[in-house]
């Protein structure tokens, strides 16, 4: 019989351990109903009424500033572009250029006004939030979904978080869950070994739990939904982490206190800063996130108000609200536009907001961290999945009952990927216009008997001015962040001083400008593939600092280099001015292979670090929790769990085998006449095997997963001989 966690006393837990019966891997289930939400049906009567009255005037004024200012800037840019091309009668191709420019310019104009708002807000707001609360009223589950991750990293991070929370004196208000969707057998058994070792070190009072799903249905969203629907009834809140997340106890306690103080809050998002990065590319991201990230995030937080967004991790969620309204529907049709929703976090926030729960960000809350991909190729692999998820939102943005700001969030996410092909099309149209001007003879005697020929002409002075304005708007958020770092003495000194900060920002701007055309082509390719119906799947992220083989870099970027060479030759043959205008794009594409290789190099990143460049305050003086997590990771590496063979581990360790079998879910009865191919193959190989070495060499990953899920097949594995009969006889 399931009993509430609150009724299980600390003494009873210790008595269970003393009797030699280890605590269960998961607490008793306490279900919450999590119905699938409809995107087509919604009634305003279903929206809850807020408990408290929240001021809205400031939020609406901020929106007027951001979108009104963006609209005015877009109108100015469009007018100037029209003046550039309307020296003579405007051709159809020139109108296309004006239209593409308007779309692209509107995107950066709103980003500029939002960053300007964030800059002003950060100038005014103090960084201190007052003392920590002395008590918390409710229990919070800290959940970390994992998928084929290295246990030395994930378990070190979670243990460091536990220690930091415990140091606040409020550790009894938090339980910890590792929710595994792992599909690699060695990684799965490594997780179980790391979990059991962690429990043994910390004792039963730490309240760590572990669950592995046999089928990773709906991936991360399904993983969280499974936890909420089965165990969510125990907890008022859950704090969702990513596998690379790190959060201080103070940050977690403040999030929990903020949720308790606001009965209308459904999701409260923190701003994670990037730490622990060493390759050149990763340190570029880390520096940009630290300098420019707070400006952008604060701007978003101010104008979004309580109509905010959720980024999928480093956020606290009201569990019952999430269960009642966060159940995601499948989209009709096949991937990439149909099936389960990849970018689930935006949709979950939208559904909670539709139901009347507030979603907002505490952008100035410190102590929230994450990591980033180590190379351009790793980023593009993750970006491909994000691209598909955001383009899927074209099927969600029109859902019934969504708030207008929510629809704007979806539109922003969609446009963040469509901007690349729009930029590409604008470049192509610009080249075509110059080509038309240079090589195509005007039609002097048109059919309508015009007195003058029609040919495209441009105003070069206006074009240069508009280019300068566009670049200023594009770079302004980076400049705002640099100004804030320079005027804040502690941050300035911790980043190497004012001169190094300016040099670092210059390096970041130059490298970002060179990488931008490469990313444009990568994202454009992703958009085109998705439009053609190609699904991305879901691959685990590479989180270490290891470099990518050079041949893989050449294979990935050779097309970009060829395109850069063709564009450069064509532009130079058409007109020198066109070549100069396109030179940043051409240079970036020509250098795609060496840039990608260099950016992923550990040595290049560490060399700049030794010079004090691209330095962040968190790098100069690492947060205590990051230092502790690194220490724990070094200790965990020595355990060797991630390097061990799963079958050998189960075969050689009877205690592990017993606990593994205890953690397996109940096996449903097999239907007569239905033969599972992997199980049949695995059983046949185990029957034919004589030794554990035979099983290790014969069984493939899918067959190993079947064996490790099946008690009967584990018995067959255990009964194998450790060595061949001849070797045993010789001994």
Automatic annotation (TrEMBL):
Q: Which SUPFAM superfamilies match?
A: Nucleotide-diphospho-sugar transferases
Q: How does it sit in the membrane?
A: Multi-pass membrane protein
Q: In which pathway does it act?
A: Glycan metabolism; osmoregulated periplasmic glucan (OPG) biosynthesis
User: So where does this one cross the membrane?
Assistant: 57-76, 96-123, 422-442, 463-487, 499-522, 561-580, 586-608
Q: Which domain of life is it from?
A: Bacteria
UniProt-annotated location(s) = Cell inner membrane
Write out the similarity annotation. Belongs to the glycosyltransferase 2 family. OpgH subfamily.
Identification of the protein by name: Glucans biosynthesis glucosyltransferase H
Q: Which organism is it from?
A: Microvirga splendida
Give the lineage.
Bacteria, Pseudomonadati, Pseudomonadota, Alphaproteobacteria, Hyphomicrobiales
Gene name in the database record: mdoH
């Amino acid at each position: 019989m399931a009993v509430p966690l609150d009724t299980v006393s600390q003494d009873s837990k210790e008595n269970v351990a003393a009797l030699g019966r280890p605590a269960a891997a998961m607490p008793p289930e306490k279900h919450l109903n999590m119905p699938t939400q409809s995107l087509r049906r919604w009634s305003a009567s279903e929206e809850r009424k807020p408990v408290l009255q929240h001021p809205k005037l400031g939020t609406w004024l901020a929106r007027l500033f951001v979108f009104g200012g963006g609209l005015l800037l877009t109108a100015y840019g469009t007018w100037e572009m029209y003046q550039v091309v309307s020296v003579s009668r405007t051709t159809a191709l020139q109108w296309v250029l004006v239209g593409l420019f308007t779309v692209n310019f509107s995107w950066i104009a709103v980003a500029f006004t939002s960053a300007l708002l964030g800059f002003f807000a950060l100038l005014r707001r103090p960084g201190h939030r007052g003392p920590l609360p002395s008590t918390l009223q409710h229990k919070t589950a800290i959940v970390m979904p994992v998928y084929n991750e290295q246990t030395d990293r994930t378990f070190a991070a979670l243990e460091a978080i536990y220690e930091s929370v415990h140091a606040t004196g409020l550790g009894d208000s938090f339980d910890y869950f590792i929710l595994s969707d792992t599909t690699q057998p060695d990684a799965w058994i490594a997780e179980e070994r790391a979990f059991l070792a962690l429990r043994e070190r910390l004792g039963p009072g730490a309240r760590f739990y572990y669950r592995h799903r046999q089928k990773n249905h709906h991936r991360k969203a399904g993983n969280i939904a499974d936890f909420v629907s089965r165990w969510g009834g125990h907890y008022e809140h859950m704090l969702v982490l990513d596998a690379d997340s790190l959060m201080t106890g103070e940050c977690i306690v403040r999030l929990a206190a903020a949720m308790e103080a606001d009965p209308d809050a459904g999701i409260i998002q923190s701003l994670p800063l990037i730490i622990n990065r060493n390759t050149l590319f990763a340190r570029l991201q880390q520096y940009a996130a630290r300098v420019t990230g707070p400006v952008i995030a604060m701007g978003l937080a101010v104008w979004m108000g309580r109509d905010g967004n959720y980024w999928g991790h480093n956020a606290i969620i009201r569990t019952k609200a999430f269960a009642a309204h966060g159940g995601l529907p499948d989209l009709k049709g096949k991937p990439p536009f149909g099936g389960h929703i990849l970018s689930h976090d935006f949709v979950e926030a939208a559904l909670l907001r539709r139901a009347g729960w507030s979603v907002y960000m505490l952008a100035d809350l410190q102590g929230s961290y994450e990591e980033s991909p180590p190379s351009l190729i790793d980023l593009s692999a993750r970006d491909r999945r994000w691209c598909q998820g955001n383009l899927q939102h074209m099927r969600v943005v029109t859902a019934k009952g969504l708030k207008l700001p929510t629809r704007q969030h979806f539109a922003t996410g969609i446009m963040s990927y469509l901007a690349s092909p729009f930029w590409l099309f604008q470049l192509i149209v610009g080249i075509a216009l110059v080509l038309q001007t240079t090589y195509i003879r005007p039609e002097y005697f048109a059919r309508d008997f015009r007195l003058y020929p029609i040919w495209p002409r441009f105003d070069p002075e206006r074009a240069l001015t508009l280019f300068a304005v566009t670049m200023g708007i594009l770079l302004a958020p980076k400049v705002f962040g640099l100004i804030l770092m320079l005027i804040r003495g502690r941050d300035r000194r911790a980043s190497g001083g004012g001169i190094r900060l300016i040099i670092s920002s210059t390096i970041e701007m130059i490298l970002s400008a060179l990488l931008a055309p490469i990313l444009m082509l990568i994202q454009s390719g992703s958009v085109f593939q998705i439009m053609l119906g190609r699904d991305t799947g879901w691959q685990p992220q590479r989180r270490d600092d290891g470099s990518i083989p050079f041949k893989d870099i050449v294979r990935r970027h050779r097309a970009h280099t060829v395109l850069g060479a063709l564009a450069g030759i064509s532009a130079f043959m058409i007109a020198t001015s066109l070549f100069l205008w396109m030179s940043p794009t051409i240079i970036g594409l020509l250098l795609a292979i060496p840039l990608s290789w260099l950016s992923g190099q550990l040595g290049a990143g560490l060399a700049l670090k030794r010079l004090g460049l691209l330095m962040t305050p968190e790098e100069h003086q690492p947060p205590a929790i990051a230092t502790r997590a690194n220490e724990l990771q070094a200790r965990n590496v020595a355990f060797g769990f991630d390097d061990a063979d799963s079958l050998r581990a189960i075969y050689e360790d009877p205690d592990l085998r017993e606990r593994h079998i205890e953690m397996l879910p109940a096996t449903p009865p097999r239907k007569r006449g239905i033969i599972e191919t992997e199980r049949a193959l695995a059983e046949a190989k185990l029957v034919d095997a004589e030794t554990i070495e035979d099983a290790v060499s014969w069984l493939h990953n899918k067959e190993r997963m079947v064996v490790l899920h099946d008690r009967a097949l584990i018995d067959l594995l255990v009964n194998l001989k450790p060595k061949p009969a001849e070797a045993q006889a010789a001994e």
